[in-house]
Predict the structure.
Amino acid sequence: MSPSAIPPRAAAAAAGPTPTKFTLPDLVSHCGFKLRINRHRKQVTSETKRWLFQGDNLVGKARDRYHGLKAGLLTAMCYPDAGAPQLRVCNDYLTYLFHLDNLSDDMDNYGTTTTADVVLNSLYHPYSYRCPARVGRMTRDFYKRMLPTASRGCQQRFIETFDFFFQSVTQQAIDRASGVIPDLESYVALRRDTSGCKPCWALIEYANNLDIPDEVMDHPVLRDLGEAANDLVTWSNDIFSYNVEQSKGDTHNMIPVVMHERGLDLQAAVDFVGELCKQTIDRFTHARASLPSWGPEIDRDVQVYADGLVSWMVGSLHWSFETERYFGKEGRAVKQSQVVHLLPRRESA
Protein backbone atom coordinates (compact mmCIF):
# COMPACT_ATOMS: atom_id res chain seq x y z
CA MET A 1 0.00 0.00 0.00
CA SER A 2 1.27 3.46 -0.83
CA PRO A 3 1.31 6.27 1.77
CA SER A 4 -1.63 7.94 0.03
CA ALA A 5 -3.69 4.76 0.31
CA ILE A 6 -3.64 4.81 4.11
CA PRO A 7 -6.69 6.71 5.39
CA PRO A 8 -5.65 9.74 7.47
CA ARG A 9 -6.89 9.85 11.05
CA ALA A 10 -8.73 12.88 12.32
CA ALA A 11 -6.62 15.30 13.92
CA ALA A 12 -4.79 18.50 13.75
CA ALA A 13 -2.23 19.02 16.39
CA ALA A 14 -3.57 22.45 17.18
CA ALA A 15 -7.00 21.05 18.02
CA GLY A 16 -6.05 19.51 21.36
CA PRO A 17 -3.64 19.95 24.27
CA THR A 18 0.09 19.63 23.67
CA PRO A 19 1.03 15.93 24.05
CA THR A 20 3.51 14.89 26.71
CA LYS A 21 4.14 11.35 25.43
CA PHE A 22 3.44 8.96 22.58
CA THR A 23 3.34 5.19 22.05
CA LEU A 24 5.71 3.42 19.68
CA PRO A 25 4.53 0.81 17.16
CA ASP A 26 5.78 -2.69 17.99
CA LEU A 27 8.06 -3.12 14.99
CA VAL A 28 10.34 -5.65 16.68
CA SER A 29 7.50 -8.19 16.90
CA HIS A 30 6.43 -7.57 13.30
CA CYS A 31 10.01 -8.08 12.08
CA GLY A 32 10.23 -11.76 12.90
CA PHE A 33 13.70 -12.40 11.47
CA LYS A 34 16.36 -13.98 13.65
CA LEU A 35 18.84 -11.63 15.34
CA ARG A 36 22.48 -12.75 15.13
CA ILE A 37 25.62 -11.08 16.53
CA ASN A 38 29.14 -11.38 15.12
CA ARG A 39 31.60 -13.17 17.40
CA HIS A 40 34.33 -10.59 16.69
CA ARG A 41 32.31 -7.74 18.19
CA LYS A 42 34.45 -6.99 21.28
CA GLN A 43 37.78 -7.16 19.45
CA VAL A 44 36.63 -4.90 16.63
CA THR A 45 34.93 -2.42 18.98
CA SER A 46 38.21 -1.95 20.86
CA GLU A 47 40.19 -1.53 17.65
CA THR A 48 37.76 1.06 16.25
CA LYS A 49 37.84 2.97 19.53
CA ARG A 50 41.63 3.29 19.33
CA TRP A 51 41.36 4.31 15.65
CA LEU A 52 38.74 6.98 16.36
CA PHE A 53 40.45 8.47 19.41
CA GLN A 54 44.07 8.51 18.23
CA GLY A 55 45.68 11.96 18.42
CA ASP A 56 42.32 13.61 18.51
CA ASN A 57 40.24 16.02 20.52
CA LEU A 58 37.33 13.66 21.18
CA VAL A 59 37.20 14.11 24.93
CA GLY A 60 34.56 14.61 27.59
CA LYS A 61 31.03 14.56 26.22
CA ALA A 62 32.21 13.54 22.75
CA ARG A 63 33.78 10.38 24.18
CA ASP A 64 30.73 9.69 26.31
CA ARG A 65 28.53 9.95 23.21
CA TYR A 66 30.76 7.48 21.41
CA HIS A 67 30.49 4.91 24.21
CA GLY A 68 26.73 5.43 24.47
CA LEU A 69 26.35 5.02 20.70
CA LYS A 70 27.36 1.34 20.78
CA ALA A 71 28.25 1.36 17.10
CA GLY A 72 30.18 -1.89 17.55
CA LEU A 73 26.99 -3.67 18.57
CA LEU A 74 25.12 -2.33 15.53
CA THR A 75 27.92 -3.46 13.21
CA ALA A 76 28.03 -6.91 14.81
CA MET A 77 24.26 -7.28 14.41
CA CYS A 78 24.25 -6.07 10.80
CA TYR A 79 27.27 -8.04 9.55
CA PRO A 80 27.04 -11.23 11.67
CA ASP A 81 29.10 -13.46 9.33
CA ALA A 82 31.95 -11.06 8.49
CA GLY A 83 35.52 -11.98 9.33
CA ALA A 84 37.37 -9.78 11.81
CA PRO A 85 39.19 -7.59 9.21
CA GLN A 86 35.99 -6.98 7.25
CA LEU A 87 33.98 -6.30 10.40
CA ARG A 88 36.62 -3.80 11.49
CA VAL A 89 36.28 -1.82 8.24
CA CYS A 90 32.48 -1.89 8.53
CA ASN A 91 32.62 -0.73 12.14
CA ASP A 92 35.13 2.02 11.36
CA TYR A 93 32.83 3.20 8.57
CA LEU A 94 29.64 3.15 10.65
CA THR A 95 31.32 4.98 13.54
CA TYR A 96 32.69 7.53 11.07
CA LEU A 97 29.24 7.84 9.42
CA PHE A 98 27.59 8.70 12.75
CA HIS A 99 30.34 11.28 13.25
CA LEU A 100 29.54 12.77 9.83
CA ASP A 101 25.83 12.71 10.60
CA ASN A 102 26.37 14.66 13.81
CA LEU A 103 28.53 17.17 11.94
CA SER A 104 26.01 17.59 9.11
CA ASP A 105 23.26 18.46 11.62
CA ASP A 106 25.15 21.69 12.31
CA MET A 107 26.34 22.42 8.77
CA ASP A 108 25.01 24.76 6.13
CA ASN A 109 25.06 23.68 2.48
CA TYR A 110 28.58 25.14 2.03
CA GLY A 111 29.87 23.05 4.92
CA THR A 112 28.39 19.81 3.56
CA THR A 113 29.72 20.54 0.07
CA THR A 114 33.23 21.19 1.39
CA THR A 115 33.19 17.98 3.43
CA ALA A 116 31.87 16.05 0.43
CA ASP A 117 34.75 17.28 -1.73
CA VAL A 118 37.29 16.02 0.79
CA VAL A 119 35.58 12.65 1.31
CA LEU A 120 34.91 11.90 -2.36
CA ASN A 121 38.42 12.91 -3.46
CA SER A 122 39.75 10.61 -0.74
CA LEU A 123 37.65 7.73 -2.12
CA TYR A 124 38.40 8.29 -5.79
CA HIS A 125 42.13 8.90 -5.19
CA PRO A 126 42.97 7.12 -1.91
CA TYR A 127 46.71 6.79 -2.71
CA SER A 128 47.37 10.18 -4.29
CA TYR A 129 44.96 12.74 -2.80
CA ARG A 130 46.45 14.74 0.03
CA CYS A 131 44.39 16.75 2.47
CA PRO A 132 45.24 17.33 6.14
CA ALA A 133 41.58 17.37 7.22
CA ARG A 134 40.88 14.59 9.69
CA VAL A 135 37.80 13.40 7.81
CA GLY A 136 39.97 12.90 4.70
CA ARG A 137 42.61 10.92 6.60
CA MET A 138 39.94 8.69 8.14
CA THR A 139 38.27 8.13 4.77
CA ARG A 140 41.49 7.13 3.04
CA ASP A 141 42.49 4.89 5.93
CA PHE A 142 39.39 2.68 6.07
CA TYR A 143 38.90 2.68 2.29
CA LYS A 144 42.45 1.48 1.56
CA ARG A 145 41.81 -1.44 3.90
CA MET A 146 38.58 -2.20 2.02
CA LEU A 147 40.07 -2.14 -1.49
CA PRO A 148 42.09 -5.41 -1.56
CA THR A 149 39.04 -7.69 -1.25
CA ALA A 150 36.09 -5.53 -2.42
CA SER A 151 34.88 -6.33 -5.93
CA ARG A 152 35.00 -3.56 -8.53
CA GLY A 153 31.20 -3.40 -8.56
CA CYS A 154 31.11 -3.10 -4.78
CA GLN A 155 33.70 -0.30 -4.85
CA GLN A 156 31.75 1.63 -7.47
CA ARG A 157 28.43 1.22 -5.65
CA PHE A 158 30.01 2.35 -2.39
CA ILE A 159 31.42 5.55 -3.88
CA GLU A 160 28.36 6.40 -5.99
CA THR A 161 25.91 5.97 -3.13
CA PHE A 162 28.15 7.92 -0.76
CA ASP A 163 28.08 10.74 -3.32
CA PHE A 164 24.25 10.55 -3.26
CA PHE A 165 24.42 10.81 0.54
CA PHE A 166 26.30 14.10 0.38
CA GLN A 167 24.04 15.52 -2.32
CA SER A 168 21.00 14.76 -0.19
CA VAL A 169 22.40 16.14 3.09
CA THR A 170 23.29 19.33 1.21
CA GLN A 171 19.65 19.64 0.18
CA GLN A 172 18.64 18.85 3.76
CA ALA A 173 20.86 21.72 4.97
CA ILE A 174 19.19 24.10 2.48
CA ASP A 175 15.72 23.01 3.65
CA ARG A 176 16.73 23.41 7.29
CA ALA A 177 18.07 26.92 6.71
CA SER A 178 14.89 28.00 4.92
CA GLY A 179 12.53 26.30 7.39
CA VAL A 180 11.00 24.18 4.61
CA ILE A 181 9.02 21.07 5.53
CA PRO A 182 8.86 18.99 2.33
CA ASP A 183 5.85 17.00 1.17
CA LEU A 184 5.91 13.28 1.97
CA GLU A 185 6.84 12.10 -1.53
CA SER A 186 9.80 14.51 -1.76
CA TYR A 187 10.87 13.65 1.77
CA VAL A 188 10.88 9.89 1.06
CA ALA A 189 13.01 10.36 -2.06
CA LEU A 190 15.53 12.49 -0.15
CA ARG A 191 15.53 10.35 3.01
CA ARG A 192 16.53 7.22 1.10
CA ASP A 193 19.88 8.92 0.56
CA THR A 194 20.30 10.99 3.76
CA SER A 195 19.98 7.71 5.70
CA GLY A 196 23.41 6.58 4.52
CA CYS A 197 22.03 3.05 4.13
CA LYS A 198 23.02 2.57 0.49
CA PRO A 199 26.80 2.54 1.11
CA CYS A 200 26.08 0.09 3.96
CA TRP A 201 24.39 -2.21 1.46
CA ALA A 202 27.60 -2.15 -0.63
CA LEU A 203 29.45 -3.16 2.54
CA ILE A 204 27.25 -6.28 2.71
CA GLU A 205 28.96 -7.36 -0.52
CA TYR A 206 32.38 -6.49 0.91
CA ALA A 207 31.82 -8.10 4.31
CA ASN A 208 30.71 -11.39 2.76
CA ASN A 209 33.24 -11.47 -0.11
CA LEU A 210 30.52 -11.29 -2.78
CA ASP A 211 31.08 -10.49 -6.44
CA ILE A 212 27.59 -10.02 -7.84
CA PRO A 213 27.44 -8.79 -11.47
CA ASP A 214 26.15 -5.26 -12.04
CA GLU A 215 23.24 -6.48 -14.16
CA VAL A 216 22.07 -8.68 -11.27
CA MET A 217 22.39 -5.90 -8.70
CA ASP A 218 20.36 -3.68 -11.07
CA HIS A 219 17.54 -6.22 -11.40
CA PRO A 220 14.21 -4.63 -10.33
CA VAL A 221 13.50 -7.28 -7.67
CA LEU A 222 16.94 -6.92 -6.08
CA ARG A 223 16.65 -3.14 -6.18
CA ASP A 224 13.22 -3.44 -4.53
CA LEU A 225 14.75 -5.57 -1.76
CA GLY A 226 17.35 -2.90 -1.05
CA GLU A 227 14.79 -0.11 -1.14
CA ALA A 228 12.40 -1.93 1.21
CA ALA A 229 15.21 -2.57 3.71
CA ASN A 230 16.31 1.07 3.43
CA ASP A 231 12.77 2.27 4.05
CA LEU A 232 12.34 0.14 7.16
CA VAL A 233 15.69 1.14 8.68
CA THR A 234 15.14 4.80 7.80
CA TRP A 235 11.48 5.28 8.69
CA SER A 236 11.77 3.33 11.95
CA ASN A 237 14.78 5.52 12.76
CA ASP A 238 12.59 8.58 12.23
CA ILE A 239 10.18 7.23 14.84
CA PHE A 240 12.93 6.39 17.33
CA SER A 241 14.86 9.64 16.84
CA TYR A 242 11.81 11.92 16.77
CA ASN A 243 11.90 12.81 20.46
CA VAL A 244 15.50 14.03 20.43
CA GLU A 245 15.03 15.81 17.10
CA GLN A 246 11.84 17.61 18.13
CA SER A 247 13.65 18.90 21.22
CA LYS A 248 16.17 20.54 18.87
CA GLY A 249 13.53 21.86 16.48
CA ASP A 250 14.71 19.59 13.64
CA THR A 251 11.94 18.89 11.10
CA HIS A 252 13.87 16.54 8.76
CA ASN A 253 11.86 13.60 10.05
CA MET A 254 8.85 11.77 8.65
CA ILE A 255 6.74 12.44 11.76
CA PRO A 256 6.52 16.26 11.36
CA VAL A 257 6.28 15.82 7.58
CA VAL A 258 3.18 13.66 8.00
CA MET A 259 1.73 15.91 10.70
CA HIS A 260 2.15 18.93 8.45
CA GLU A 261 0.90 17.36 5.22
CA ARG A 262 -2.04 15.39 6.62
CA GLY A 263 -3.04 17.45 9.62
CA LEU A 264 -2.43 14.58 12.03
CA ASP A 265 -1.70 14.83 15.72
CA LEU A 266 1.53 13.31 17.02
CA GLN A 267 0.20 9.87 17.93
CA ALA A 268 -1.70 9.52 14.66
CA ALA A 269 1.45 10.46 12.73
CA VAL A 270 3.53 7.92 14.67
CA ASP A 271 0.89 5.25 13.97
CA PHE A 272 0.88 6.22 10.29
CA VAL A 273 4.66 5.89 9.93
CA GLY A 274 4.61 2.69 11.99
CA GLU A 275 2.11 1.18 9.57
CA LEU A 276 4.35 2.15 6.65
CA CYS A 277 7.25 0.39 8.39
CA LYS A 278 5.24 -2.81 8.79
CA GLN A 279 4.31 -2.64 5.11
CA THR A 280 7.97 -2.40 4.12
CA ILE A 281 8.71 -5.63 6.04
CA ASP A 282 5.89 -7.36 4.17
CA ARG A 283 7.11 -5.84 0.90
CA PHE A 284 10.63 -7.16 1.54
CA THR A 285 9.34 -10.66 2.28
CA HIS A 286 7.27 -10.67 -0.92
CA ALA A 287 10.17 -9.42 -3.06
CA ARG A 288 12.54 -11.99 -1.62
CA ALA A 289 10.13 -14.77 -2.53
CA SER A 290 10.04 -13.39 -6.10
CA LEU A 291 13.79 -13.47 -6.79
CA PRO A 292 14.61 -15.01 -10.18
CA SER A 293 17.47 -17.46 -10.76
CA TRP A 294 20.81 -16.58 -12.34
CA GLY A 295 22.44 -19.97 -11.80
CA PRO A 296 23.70 -21.73 -8.63
CA GLU A 297 26.77 -19.56 -7.91
CA ILE A 298 25.11 -16.17 -8.38
CA ASP A 299 21.95 -17.37 -6.62
CA ARG A 300 24.05 -18.26 -3.57
CA ASP A 301 25.63 -14.80 -3.49
CA VAL A 302 22.24 -13.13 -3.94
CA GLN A 303 20.82 -15.10 -1.02
CA VAL A 304 23.77 -14.07 1.15
CA TYR A 305 23.18 -10.45 0.12
CA ALA A 306 19.46 -10.74 0.94
CA ASP A 307 20.38 -12.27 4.32
CA GLY A 308 22.61 -9.24 4.88
CA LEU A 309 19.67 -6.91 4.30
CA VAL A 310 17.63 -9.00 6.77
CA SER A 311 20.39 -8.62 9.37
CA TRP A 312 20.31 -4.87 8.90
CA MET A 313 16.53 -4.72 9.30
CA VAL A 314 16.29 -6.76 12.48
CA GLY A 315 19.63 -5.57 13.86
CA SER A 316 18.85 -1.87 13.53
CA LEU A 317 15.50 -2.32 15.30
CA HIS A 318 17.02 -4.05 18.32
CA TRP A 319 20.05 -1.75 18.44
CA SER A 320 17.82 1.34 18.56
CA PHE A 321 16.85 0.36 22.12
CA GLU A 322 20.42 -0.54 23.15
CA THR A 323 22.12 2.67 22.02
CA GLU A 324 21.78 5.82 24.13
CA ARG A 325 21.35 7.93 21.00
CA TYR A 326 17.52 7.96 21.07
CA PHE A 327 16.29 7.04 24.55
CA GLY A 328 19.32 7.73 26.72
CA LYS A 329 19.78 5.01 29.32
CA GLU A 330 16.06 4.12 29.24
CA GLY A 331 16.13 2.19 25.95
CA ARG A 332 15.33 -1.22 27.33
CA ALA A 333 12.52 0.16 29.48
CA VAL A 334 11.08 1.97 26.43
CA LYS A 335 11.35 -1.25 24.41
CA GLN A 336 9.20 -2.95 27.04
CA SER A 337 6.63 -0.22 27.63
CA GLN A 338 6.63 1.30 24.09
CA VAL A 339 5.95 4.69 25.76
CA VAL A 340 8.14 7.73 25.02
CA HIS A 341 7.88 10.85 27.18
CA LEU A 342 8.57 14.03 25.21
CA LEU A 343 11.68 16.01 25.99
CA PRO A 344 11.31 19.79 26.46
CA ARG A 345 12.35 22.04 23.60
CA ARG A 346 15.84 23.47 23.93
CA GLU A 347 15.89 27.26 24.06
CA SER A 348 18.43 27.40 21.21
CA ALA A 349 15.98 25.49 19.00
